[in-house]
Amino acid sequence: MNHTSQCSALIALFLSTSAFADDVPNIDDSHNTKVIESLPADNHDQLQTLVDLGWDSKYISEGRNNLDKGGIYWATAAIQKNNVNLYATVGRGDSQHYTEWNFGIEYGFNLTENLSGSVGYQRLEFYGDDRAHDNELFSSLEYSAFDWLVPSLSYTYSTEANGYFVEVSVHSNWELSSGLTVSPYITQAFDFKYATEEHDGANHFQFGVEAEYLLPNNLVLSGHISHTIAQEDIKLEARNNGVTDNLDQTFAGIHLSWSF
């Protein structure tokens, strides 16, 4: 399986629940193409809307490049009220025929002052050389007592694969100037029959730097550069498929979001 899910992604979607806590959105999560984390953290009883446009130099999820060539454009629309988010995301390859739709709902909550979480469901539809679909259940936890050390945990279950994927991340958020925040991060991912059936365990290690700049009129410009290091799950899959290429990946992305 090669696609996005929550968690996450970019965002997003994922995953990171800064839509519900006063901390910096984290966008490195390869399972999360949702950008609902950028919605304001207050006034949850009011209906809020977010529109996001983005591009990634490669379509990387589960530590794998999902496209034979080129990158991918993303567009997301999300609405939030009372900590409930509804969203739709579409991705289209910039150099080959590929389209992906994600439709989902996510509920965010605060367990304590600094510990926030979310749970949700999303439907995925894929159009390319092959037609496919999936249903995913996801959840996440984030502890944000210290901006310089923000650990998070995300979980995604796939009904088609009958497996799950876990990511443990640590972000360090630094406000370099008014409106500009830079966040180096590391992520360790584990696969349990989500990406492959042959091996359970360490999937990949990822690290990178994210940046976010607040613009006037509720606009947010964000970007990242990331690198993945293949671990046993990816290496066994490549060996079984006779792939001898370098399995590590370097990619970057940029997004412009508008909330109102």
- Give the class from helix and strand content and strand pairing: mainly beta
**Tally of alpha and pi helices:** 1
The quaternary state of the protein chains shown equals: single chain
Low-confidence stretches: 1-36
Question: Percent of residues in helical segments?
Answer: under 10%
Strand percentage lies at over 45%
Terminus-to-terminus distance: 35 Å
**Order of helical and strand elements:** EEEEEEEEEEEEEEHE
Shape by Cα distribution:
globular
Number of strands: 15
Mean pLDDT: 86
What Rg do the Cα atoms give? 17 Å
Account of the protein in words:
By secondary structure, this protein is mainly β. The chain is built from 1 helix and 15 strands. The protein has one helix spanning 232-240; strands spanning 48-56, 60-61, 64-65, 72-81, 84-93, 99-110, 115-127, 131-143, 150-158, 163-171, 174-177, 180-192, 200-215, 219-230, 249-259. Strands 1-4-5-6-7-8-9-10-12-13-14-15 form a 12-stranded antiparallel β-barrel. Strands 2-3 form a two-stranded antiparallel sheet. A hairpin with a 4-residue loop joins β9 and β10 (163-171). It is globular and about 50 Å long. The termini are far apart. Residues 1-36 have low confidence and may be disordered. Residues 1-21 form the signal peptide. Keywords: Signal.
Summarize the entry for a quick read.
The protein is mainly β.
